[in-house]
Amino acid sequence: MGLKDLSRGQRLLDDDRDNGDGGALARSISYFRRRLLEDVELRELVTLSASQRRARLERTVAQLISVEGAVMSSAQRTTLIRQVVDEALGLGVLEPLLADPTVTEIMVNGPGEVWIERDGRIQRTGAFFAGEAELLQTIDRIVSTVNRRVDESSPMVDARLPTGERVNAIIPPLALHGATLTIRRFPRAFTFEQLVDMGTVDEPTAALLRAMVRARLSIVISGGTGAGKTTLLNALSGFIPGAERIITIEDSAELQLQQPHVVSLEARPPNVEGKGQVTIRDLVRNSLRMRPDRIVVGEVRGPETLDMLQAMNTGHDGSLSTVHANSAEAALIRLETLTSMSDVAIPFEALRDQINSAIDVIVQLERFADGRRRIREVAAVASAHRDTFRLRTIGRFEHEPVGPDRTIIGRFEHFSLPEPVAYRLMLAAEPTPEVFTAGASGVTAPVREAV
Ligand SMILES: Nc1ncnc2c1ncn2[C@@H]1O[C@H](COP(=O)(O)OP(=O)(O)OP(=O)(O)O)[C@@H](O)[C@H]1O
Ligand SMILES: [Mg+2]
User: Fold this and answer.
1) Would the CB of 49 count as within 6 Å of ligand 1?
2) What is the pLDDT of residues 27-36, one digit of tens each?
């Protein structure tokens, strides 16, 4: 421990005494909790019983407070120790993983196995729970904060930690190898500059996407699980001009828009008695009565797709959403399937018509073998009316065959904009980056059919 830490611990407690407000107490709790996690040997801790563990932690916190903390009454001291330990024990062996910002996902497959994702790669950690009971208790602690419970009658549940992490739990008998917990870190909001720095997209393509959003093209981001769809949607939404009224609709609120005029709506699962559900579709329909300039739907995965497309076709162009699919073609076909899930009986060709006229551009994301997320393709929808879907590449990432070390050597390629897209940008007085103009490369990608 250095002098800096000492003065920090002292200052926190001084704050505490000065005004006695809850914020300062919370700060001392979180400070000592962090110090505790730094000091304590977790591997050793997991071998202890619950009561031994508490005693050990209390002893450590007491030592930390006597060295780093201010002078305080023994009652104050006991309260502080108890609260720090309570918080530290809250999520057991998961605490240090949650405290580590480089961990983006935590996966618990039964009490004996804890995996994490770091830098896009999955690895097993040495952490484990003392037994099934302790794991279940941790799960219970998490889901009870959102008034849900996990038991035989409701063996799977989605919840969210107070800090924003998204949690899914599924227990036996559905999970065959023990209770399984998946925690997704609340996605960091990356700016486009950061995405360019990380190699997700190159500068010209980022500039093009900016122009497209501002020119009100309707864009669907597509990709597999964890490919970075929500992150890109957040960054793209950042290009919407501040003067517009934006309504965001999500299953669990992850978007963090910075514009001054944003209304955020979040769907609600049914409660324990199976009542009170509000779906994404309900929210999309309701949003149309809220005078939106733009609707941003976190992800379409059900009958709301048709409502979303209809909204895009009736004056709410420039709307943005994501869909789960592994290629731009597959995204269109997935949208077609999703629209057909609606209870409105519409002939199949008419559904295609809706998609062809609503969606201008698909952005395909992929997590590559080196763990990086990149824009694999930006493609314009080139089909109209009831035609079979057709796509024309505007930009794409091409790479050499991946070697055994899984490094990726590749580059972004650019093609000149299809006429209708170029025209839309021109009408909106949005500049087209040079590499996408016919003058620069002169190459227009061929149209391909989505089959
Ligand atoms: N371009 C990127 N570069 C590096 N990390 C990224 C990038 N995009 C997303 N991530 C990280 O990857 C994880 C998953 O991102 P995100 O939630 O955006 O994916 P998703 O495709 O929306 O996932 P899901 O299918 O679960 O909705 C997050 O931890 C996020 O911070
Ligand atoms: Mg997402």
Assistant:
1) no
2) 787 788 778 8
